[in-house]
Amino acid sequence: MTRATTTASRRKQVPERATARSHVKRLPIWAQSVLLLVAVLAVWQFVSGRLVDPFYLPAPSEIVTSLWLSAVDGSLWANLWTTLQETMIGFCIGATAALVAGVIFGRSPRVAAVLDPFLVALNATPRVALAPLFVVWFGIGLLSKVILVITMVFFIVFYNTFQGVRSVDATYIRVATVMGASQRQIFRTVILPAATPLIVLGLKLSIPFALIGAVIGEFIASSAGLGFQIKLASNTYDTAGTMAGIFVLMAVAVLIDLALNRLARRILFWQPESAERTTSSTM
Amino acid sequence: MSTTIPLSRRQALRGMAMLAGLSLAGPVLSSCAGGGTGPDGARRVRLTQAVNSLAYAQNYIAQRAGFYREAGLVVETVVTDGGGPDVQAVLAGSAEFTINDGGQVVTALAGNRRVTAVAATFDRCLVNATISVRAAQRLGIDPSTPLDRKIAALPGLRIGVTAPGALTWQIARYNLVGAGSDPDAATLVALGGGPAVLAALETDQVDVIYISIPFGEEAVNRGIGLTLIDHSAGEDPNLSRFMMEGLWVTPDAMEENGNTVAAMVSALRRSSDFIRTAPSEEIAELLEPDFTNFGREVLLTAVERLKGAVPADARWDATAQATTERVLQTNGLLRPDAPPIASIVDDRFLT
């Protein structure tokens, strides 16, 4: 083939590729995500057993089979329920405490200045390293996992709330004061709405950490939970089972995130659509 | 005069990627390669073990008594803090040897994945069950209680083990099945390493612990526990012979580095002979630096138990193999495509 013909055929291919790309771009976002997922799974399925030993990288079909088996025998639901309990209790307590603390610190610069070094130090403590101590202090039951989740969630929500409250434009507060609004009214109608996007961001960011906290707690000491299930599979070289557990965790994180997104859309109904999207995409 | 060759963006990127790959590959490859010969001519090898426990006594003794050095070896021991990575490291070639129990290794084998046992270091289960004094009093159990009554008391108790799937977990479940109970219905709490398991018994968070010696013996010594089932003394006849610990290596490494394997086997056998024949005080003294948390009394008790669990010929007999298979089957861990246990034991280095 001469260079001229090659160039000509390349020129012909370019518009075709461009058309295909524009077709893909015209698909809704969710369809593009599904397309990407299908492509990744197809490549993975092909590679496993052909190029990579399935012992190290089991095929997606094996992972689905493992999930199905654990769903049928009920162990998946029992373990999922345990982990969800730990996660949700820890998340609710941690997030509530962080919201209250964040608002107090945001509204009281003096308190914030005094306690800031302590908070920084506490935040720098590796929670994973504390996990075995929590087991010793709080026992091997639910409590040690809940405490671990609280420590994972607290600082993320706290700093976002704190920042949200602090970043309210002072002009709005002054205008509200001039108009005769009480402190409570200012908080309810000015500060809280302005801080909400950052608070929601903090809550969304902390969800995966809450799950991680629960699972780490289960890794350290447990008799049930997704962490227990993953560790059992891992210790018995059941890589498909291990990955199945990990995928369940990912799915749970995505579902909670979706639920929070819906909630955020309701709470932030006044926010322009573009800004809301930016907030969502940042997460 | 020099000429400059213009590079396209793609070529430049490819070159940069190659350079980055090469710069990363060097350190990674050198860190993966455990073997090699040191400047002193000694052969350097890497050995994995799951935890620090007296179940690996031969390894500690071979290091401390210089048996490895005299065999021309420098052995780096990697403790993986739990079963799994220890075998995987050998399968993946990042370690040459693992000292491991049959139950753990056989679970990993299927298809083309093979490791072979070249020497047995213990042929009796060293995982003992210890009950808290309070639970024992509640259930009316004392050292004279017959075994079947003790096993029958297990269902309904909170049982602490090291990790789900670990040998402690397997043996606890095996005993529960022996009690006619569904092991899935029992509360087996995975607690991590020996100290955590011991702490859980001490704080009454569990009623019984399954742990390799000397942790249970430490509980007895502190007055917080009673030995419930002394597997190390062969109390349970169903577990009197077991593929407890042995030296495992891949068949490829066995063929390619036969001399190194032979040297390892020789050093570990010297350790085994030492355990069988030397006075307990001398053995305990050698082990003490690796087990500083235990008093001499506990170590002496544990050493006495080790003595009866070392096979003189460094082999697992047919009973040990059959028992291991039964334990795996009971726990649903024997893969359908797993090789027969007899086929993964090779005694060519024992002559």
Percentage of helical residues of chain B?
40-55%
**Radius of gyration from the alpha-carbon trace of chain B, in angstroms:** 23 Å
User: Which word captures the global form of chain A?
Assistant: flat
Report the count of strand segments of chain A. Answer: 0
Query: Looking across the biggest beta sheet of chain B, what order are the strands in?
Result: 2-1-3-10-4
Which two chains share the most extensive interface?
A-B, 19 and 29 residues
Succession of helices and strands of chain A? HHHHHHHHHHHH
Classify the beta-strand content of chain B into a percent band: 15-25%
Which fold does the CATH topology of the largest domain in chain A refer to?
A: MetI-like fold
- How many beta-strand segments of chain B? 10
| Terminal residue distance of chain A | 51 Å
- State mean pLDDT of chain B (0 to 100 scale): 87
Please provide a written account of the structure.
The complex is a heterodimer of chains A (283) and B (351). Chain A is mainly alpha-helical and 283 residues long. Chain A folds into two domains: 29 residues; 223 residues, MetI-like (MetI-like fold), CATH 1.10.3720.10. Chain A has twelve helices and no strands. Chain A is flat and about 70 Å long. The C terminus of chain A is likely disordered. In chain B, the strands form two sheets. In chain B, strands 2-1-3-10-4 form a five-stranded mixed β-sheet, with helices on both faces. A five-stranded mixed β-sheet of chain B has the order 7-6-8-5-9. The termini of chain B are far apart. In chain B, helix 8 links the parallel strand 6 and strand 7. Chain B has 351 residues and is an alpha/beta fold. Chain B contains 15 helices and ten strands. The chains are: A mainly alpha (283), B alpha/beta (351). Chains A and B meet through helix 6 and helix 10 of A and helix 4, strand 7 and helix 9 of B.
